[in-house]
Design brief:
502 residues; mainly beta; Rossmann fold; Immunoglobulin-like; six-stranded mixed beta sheet; 9% helix; 42% strand; disordered N terminus
Length: 502
Amino acid sequence: MTRYLIIMIVLLPVFTAQVSLSGDGRRIQSVAVLTFENLTGEDLPCDLTQVVCDHLEKKKFEIISEEVLEGFFVARRIRRTGLLSRTTIRDLGERLKADVLITGSVNLLSDGDNPRVDVSAQMIDTLDSSICWINSVSYSGDDFATLFRIGEITSLEKLVTISVQDLLKDIPEVFEEKKEKKGEMGPFEIARAGFYPQAAKPGESVELVIEVMEISGMPTYINAIVFDKSVSLVSEGDGWYRGAFFSPATEGIYTLKIYAAAELNKVFFFDDLASLVVDNTPPVVAIEGRGTLISPNGDGINDYAMFFPVLLKTDILKDWRFEIRDRTGKLIRSDEGPAELPKTLIWRGKNDDFKPVDDGAYWGQLIINDKAGHEAATKKVMISVDRTLPDIEIVLCKITEDFIVFSVECNEASKIVEWDILIYDQGGKCVKKLGGEQDLPSDIQLQVKNKGDSLNRNGFSYSSEVRDAAGNMLTVEKEPVKSAIPERTPAQTEQEEWIDDF
């Protein structure tokens, strides 16, 4: 999409689109031409702005010099001329005696065997900042070629000249009849106007600040109207005025109107300069937590909790704050920001010093303030932090002629969600394999195939992989199975005691 200094239009290749609003009326004489904005991303091979000025002079327009324009912008500390306010354009026209302002952009300007030019321009009436003419052209050298490439343009300079001629061929030389009524425009403009605060509770003190920019004179009287009530303004010098009032008792949006009088008591009216929001309703906000059982250990599984704030009622926010607190209420982690709520908040199990927190329960809460001064908070969302690995052990607990029974002992705060267990015999052969995503079994039974080995309780081992709901994974490789069966000890024979009997 092509960008422009004041407005935006769409360019089509090898096509000219133009709008001319000129008619019989006041003649356009003095023209201020701003340097065309370079949108090519490269240095321009020629000064297209100067080519435009040369062609305008041939049409008998008076061109205001570049030095005079620069002096005007320097005096007003304007660094970017791409977007000028209506007040600045009026001031430029009054100070420099310019009837119109011409701005434009160079969208493409390339040399070579087939040069290309893409340029746009617009004319702005300095009286009321209305656009009275727009045009754009886009050409390449081979656009002019006929059979056997006769007529093809290979010179960029020549193509630029033709392009600018076509760009300016229908530029108006007179304004519409209505443009002659210059006296209807005031000798000053309202440059800035604002309420402080911009949103308030009913009956709250509000300050109104206004800046008036002189064009050809300053107001002899000025008054503000809010909610059909007059607000007195006091001059502070240099065009600044200040007033104060109490906000209306009824909720709503109130616009600022200003009446100002000039010489000969001619009154000028300015409407919708600023808006005051009167709000007596606290904001309504909610927050949803996802993945609030976390094991922030950097393994990529459940390393953080996510929160999604939602403003349930349209409001103008001033700021927000998100807090993580422990079970005692101590603040562990916080974040804050102005105005708009973030789409997502993430907590990675660390405190404000970026150190990992201890395992346990924590609570997250979002607090917001609107510009009227109301505060609202969400319900607290619990987050459980668990970095502890699951603790399980396989224990031989019973031997019968038909079965060997192993108990599965688990000491785990979080629920086990996935597990695999393998039992190996004395020779290292896997004799039992179990697994799943259900709860751990309380025991494992191994059927005895060779009853002669049923009483051999030594030499069993196991491997396991167990993951809890927090994401912690325990892996054990061929750990010896402990036995809970008491060892049998041979009965001790009673020793004969020597008795010396007489």
